[in-house]
Amino acid sequence: MQYRSLGSSSLQLSVLSFGSWITFGTRLDQRGANECLACAYDHGINFFDSAEVYLGGEAERMLGQGIKTLGWSRDGYCISSKVLFGTGDNHATANPSRPTQQGLSRKHITEACHQALQRFGVDYLDFYLCHRPEPGMSIAEIAWTMNTLVQQGKVLYWGTSEWPAKDILRLIEFCQHNSLIPPQLEQPQYNLFHRERVENEYQPLVHDHGLGLTTWSPLASGVLAGRYDEGIPAGTRLTTEGFSWLEDFVFENKRDERIAAAKQLKAIANGLGATRAQLALAWVLQNQAVTSVLVGASSVAQLQENLGALELVPRVDAAVLQKIHKIFEHH
């Protein structure tokens, strides 16, 4: 495993990290989750990601139970939670979160932190992220609340996920002006179809303010791995119960074009003796602005394939990058 500093901090994170979105509680039961967690940890992964909204908190409970069962020392791993949506299913009319059970108010940020600690079965969160920006949110309220949680020892680092750079900068400047602990990380989507934010929008924050990036969806939910070359087979993410909206999110009305581009990636991967999934991951990892890349897996075999991307990174040279970018320059 390779490790990188989280932005300007001294914290060393594994360049591959393990996420629980969609898979935990849907495609992985507790036994399967434990097997994947053990594989990840044994290969040096030290960052495990979740959120309050993932399966109504069940993903966090499963992650916490797996850590307890496997007997990891608390100083050997990092876990994250994200706050905004609450634990209700926001893509269904049943069991929605109540107004005080969601959002970025001091009340919900604080209570959601305590609830995440309870689900995980730990005394503190390594990372606590504002899951998305919220209309009308108070930068001051968020910054002061997060600072309080850090001072109380309940959170070590805090940050954002999919926030516009201008709002992250507002947070940083407010914290600097008021001598508060600033956000340390942003968690954006980053893959061959989604490059603008990481490669352009966030660069001043990375270079000028030491913001760390822990990116998600390196395979575009499996599109870049070739899982949808011949349509959408049963048992994949896009057919998971409760995630019917994901197909529109992934393809953005460009289904045929994106699948065609993913197919062209196969020849480049074959030439390197790798799979498309490994090449897509290695492409993300060659960007040194990225601290860690979140991967999800529904089996140990899939996770092991992802881990194989580490050996490929040094071989993704300028010539390979040029071939890849020629395929994806209009996607």
Automatic annotation (TrEMBL):
Domain of life: Bacteria
Coiled coil: none
Entry annotated with the keyword Hydrolase: no
Transmembrane domains' residue ranges: none
GO molecular function: oxidoreductase activity
Domain NADP-dependent oxidoreductase stretches: 16-325
Keywords: NADP, Oxidoreductase
Family statement drawn from the similarity comment of this UniProt entry: Belongs to the shaker potassium channel beta subunit family.
Protein name: Aldo/keto reductase
Natural source organism: Stutzerimonas stutzeri (Pseudomonas stutzeri)
